[in-house]
Amino acid sequence: MRFHHAALILALILGWNAMAHSQDAPRPPSDVIAVDQPNDVGNTVDVSWSLSPDDRADVSPRLVTRYDVYRRAVGEEEFVKVGDQPPGASTLADSNAVRDTEYLYQVVAVGPDEAESAPAAAAATVVPRMEYFRRDRAWFAVIVFCICSTVVAFIVIARSGRELYIRKIPGLEAVDEAVGRATEMGRDCLFVPGIMDINDIQTVAGINVLSRVSQLTAEFGARLEVPTARSLVMTAARETVEASYYAAGRPDAYNEDDIYYISDEQFGYVAGAMGAMVRERPAACFYMGVFYAESLLLAETGNSIGAIQVAGTAMPAQLPFFVAACDYTLIGEEFFAASAYLSGEASQLGSLRGQDVGKLLVAFLLLVGCSAATIAGLTDSDSAETALTFIKDHVLGDKGFLP
Amino acid sequence: MKPQTLGWTLLMVVGGAFLIGRAVLTGAGTVYVQDVEIEVEIEDEAEEEAQVVTLQRVEQVPPNARSEPGVRLSYVHTFGLWVAAACTLGIFSFLWGDNPLYKVTEAIFVGSSAAYAMVVAFWSELVQNLCGNLLPDLMRETLIPGLKVEEPNLWYLVPLVMAIMLLWRLMPSGGWISRWPLAFFIGATAGFRMMGYLEADFTQQISNTIMPLIVTGADGSFQFWASLKNMTIVGSVLVCLTYFFFSVEHTGPVGWAARLGIWVLMITFGASFGYTVMGRIALLAGRLEFLFDDWLWLIDPLGRRLDM
Amino acid sequence: MYTFLRDLDRRWIFLLMGIVATVPILAGWRFPEDPSPMVRDVFHAIEDLPDGSRIFMAYDYDPASQGELHPMALAFTRHCALKGHKLYFFTLWPQGGPLIQQNIRLIERNFPDYEYGEDYVNLGYRSGQEGPIKVIVTDLRKSVAVDVNGTSLSEIPMTRDIRNIQQMDLIVNVSAGYPGTKEWVLYASTPYNIETVAGCTGVSAPYLYPYYPEQLAGILGAIKAAAEYEYTLIEEYPQLKDDPTAQEALRRMGPQLVAHVTLIVLIIVGNTIYFVGRSRGDVT
Amino acid sequence: MKRTVPLIIAGTVGFVLIVSYFIPYTESWGEDAMTWFNILAAIAFVLGAGNLVKMHLKKISDQQAGWGYSAITLAAFFFTLIVGMLKIGVTPSEKYPTNAWAGPYDQAGSAFRWVYDYLFLPLSATMFAMLAFYIASAAFRAFRAKNVEAIALLTTAFIVLLGRTYAGVWLTDWIPEESIGLEADALRLDNVTGTIMNTFNLAGMRAITIGIALGVASTSLKVLLGVDRSYLGSTDD
């Protein structure tokens, strides 16, 4: 009985479809081209076509409502639909192809009431292949290699005992001064290592500064409080501070509970930290790490309790508040440099020098690129144009190693 | 001290009276809901007839629909609204100074936010991706009926083991075990961040800055403002980079460039400040709208209480 | 006067700020807007796509920044739905789920033709900050096997053929910080050339400017840009003119103006005190 | 064992992720590593919550000052946790009407959603809104024209503050569109704001961005090579 119904419906659909074909099915698209997407794992075929002549934006209702893309592996009977695109679109990336299989693609324009055009097939079959190396990223690989090797080279040089000059970073004295003031007043120091986890390099830099601050508090005998937003940061901070107190010969003065975790949630953490500030009234506050909206909340609360404040962050958005509300601020890369400077480790100073070489590379590329662009704009020099496209599209772009 | 206490008491009494007045006279702070029933057919392969299941849903409706049939006052939501208002005022009370009300709201906030993140991560990541791949059959029968994974993927034992090692940190001893997953976590971050930053923030930024310093129009005429703009951009980038150059002392020409650099940075920070102010005021406006609209019914910008 | 202002308790300033924000809201002040070129860029990134394009709605914000970003997110959703685009909602913020649901409510109420699974789908939240971006940009199902209702992506018509988000025609990102626009630019739009527009908080807009226009097709910065966007939307779709829910950001610009002017006055007064104090030798 | 293995793990996984950027064959290795990373990130929330509970329990058992608030924190924590984990109040979804566990955990009407709507949302939004007040007080007390740099910062902030509202348009729309052959409307405050954002802000932010990218690259490299091992801590346990 069921079968009977189904057959009847099928017959109706087929018949109706055939009628629709003859009446209002759109004309098919043309020039279907299927090519293997370069530089991929071999699972994507880029299909493109020219729009059906009936696909016009100025006709309403539209005569083409979508394009269906079908594919068939050579050797199989049936075409399988792999995706559809809205009218006006003429490309589709089929990312579900199987590597090294030969496919034939066809595109059908579909009109209102699902009336399908005749299929337009791609002229040639396509075989998706996997490349062994992403040629579009060749120059990028070279740049990565250059930067990495310079950093490594300078680390090696620094470790071999050669003195590397790093300019004095203003604001580091501010750290010493602040701890001194807090000790004089007999009040605490508060250190906020930002709200991100230990896998953020700014947090790591902050912990380096913390090691300096805790050395000072251990020497001077001031209490140091470190509220953290991440449990892993808490552990790292505890280990760092403990080591400083041992080094200063005052392990008895180290209190694990002064370095505590509040909450992973940003404002939960800030609420807790602000509460601690107004209750303990520290005389010196340090904010070193990643900060978001809490920067101003912390800095203003610190201001209201009259604390000396020193901040350091590479978060561009939060720098204005620290610059305005704190007594001293380490801006962006200065913060990393300060942390390297304080750690005094040869490797840290070496990597700083490596970064400077990176900046020289930027300046060089900018000067060459801008000169080429200017010359190319002023004269109709072909060589300047070639140089410009080479730098922009190849060295800094994704057009491959050579033109 | 005495006049201050008196002042506070007076303020509290007046405020309380106002609230009671609003609530009694206008019904402010009430929430109305409607019960909705959804009938869903389930196809059971064993049964011939499709079974029909009725699902109950409660939908919130705007207050001006309160006299319509089926709409009732929701005690749970009304209570919630007053709790929300109390929380809002509790946090704002910190502006006056630290006080017990703020401390209570702070404690609630810290506790609920930690649990919130944990619950969400549990259902969305641990159940779906970890359990879904390790125990697909069990998950299909219980928590994720729509799961399509067929066979257990034993590779997911690796993150499971690492997860247990990470949680070992909560134990009194043997905390070093957690360093292994931690190392994985940090190594992975270092790896993908290095590539992402170098491509988008280094090479692409250089590429974006390469521009002609002297701009000419289509007819070959000299474009003064466009040229000045391009020169300013390229020059500013270079002087700012000089400020961040650590290998030489900032004296002489380098010192001058660095000084120009810090000025550009300050202009940048000024612009940042202006933009930030804009955002923060909007947040305050959002909160005030909640108090005046949803709670006290003083304003009605969305027309949810027209004809009342 | 000078000593009074110098030693002014900051609670008076808080009070002033409270009043300044309250009055325009209670009075319902509104001001005209003039859309900036940047806002028009964002508008056209969505408007110029063929109707029915695939748009990945990465809504990375939470209730904390709702006041600033929710109007913007709603405007994006409304615009995409007006164009008949297919929407894929996703969030990297644990608190973002219910906000996506509010965007979906907007679709359900105003676009009865839109059907779940055919025209929009909610992929929910994934943990790992920028981690999920790295995965879904090459393999969506490795991170998102099922939607929020527990339905497999292979059973949902609009995700059946999607392998990764490189197949999206546009990423619309609303971001309140980290993870957010920067991460989408770093791990999706730059390495895989996926067209992206962003709506972000006022605080993050300035540091996204270096990505415009090569890596980001446009940036909406804070409530002002959201208001201009709503204005552009009303211009193009006049049927929204009488819909108050389509003008949330426009409404919020009232307190904005008064508060900005107040802040400027505060800075001037503060500096006057500073200079008077310096001439009297009060400040070192 | 305690230090070498972590260094090897960090180096290997980082290297795999770098290589997978260039060699398509290893792309899926990178995906797997990231999938595991995401699962570990979810576990980190449990770790965070575990620490929170530990800390507050200690505070209560030691009867430290303010232990009552710790009790409230724990109560809020467990209440949210229980209603969320047990999906209290969640009704089955339409797709799977017989399986109550398949409903979304944050479904409208569930207890967990109540916590979100009436506790979490107002608390976090208000916390953020407080910034408006703090900005006002910072504007009054902290933004002082102490030196040339500060003047540059303040002037820019002024212009942008005005230029991003109707006040800027209203104050300067008397400036003609063109005068003495120049495009004078560039001097209107809203246009000046645009110029600042597209020129100085863009350049300054770009320099900061490039610097930070280099910083991230070199630090990441140090972590992968085992030169920087601060995350391992300095003691043996």
What does this structure look like?
The complex is a heterotetramer of chains A (403), B (308), C (284) and D (237). By secondary structure, chain A is an alpha/beta fold. Chain A has 3 domains: 25-121, Immunoglobulins (Immunoglobulin-like, Sandwich); 135-155 and 349-395, no CATH class; 164-344, Rossmann fold. Helix content of chain A is 46%, strand content 17%. Chain A is built from 11 helices and 13 strands. Chain A has helices spanning 2-24, 138-159, 172-185, 201-220, 231-247, 266-280, 294-304, 319-325, 333-343, 346-378, 382-395, and strands spanning 30-36, 45-50, 66-73, 80-85, 91-94, 103-110, 120-121, 189-192, 224-228, 259-261, 284-288, 308-313, 328-331. The longest helix of chain A is centred in the last third of the chain and has 33 residues, at 346-378. The model of chain A is unreliable at 17-22 (pLDDT under 50). Chain B is mainly α and 308 residues long. Helix content of chain B is 62%, strand content 8%. Chain B has a 3-stranded antiparallel sheet. The two termini of chain B are 45 Å apart. The model of chain B has no long low-confidence stretch (mean pLDDT 88). Chain C has a 6-stranded parallel sheet, sandwiched between helices. Chain C starts with a helix and ends with a helix. The mean pLDDT of chain C is 91. Chain D has 237 residues and is an all-alpha fold. Chain D has 3 domains: 1-85, no CATH class; 92-138, no CATH class; 143-229, no CATH class. The termini of chain D are close together. Chains B and D meet through strand 1, strand 2, helix 2, helix 3 and helix 5 of B and helix 1, helix 2, helix 3, helix 4 and helix 5 of D.
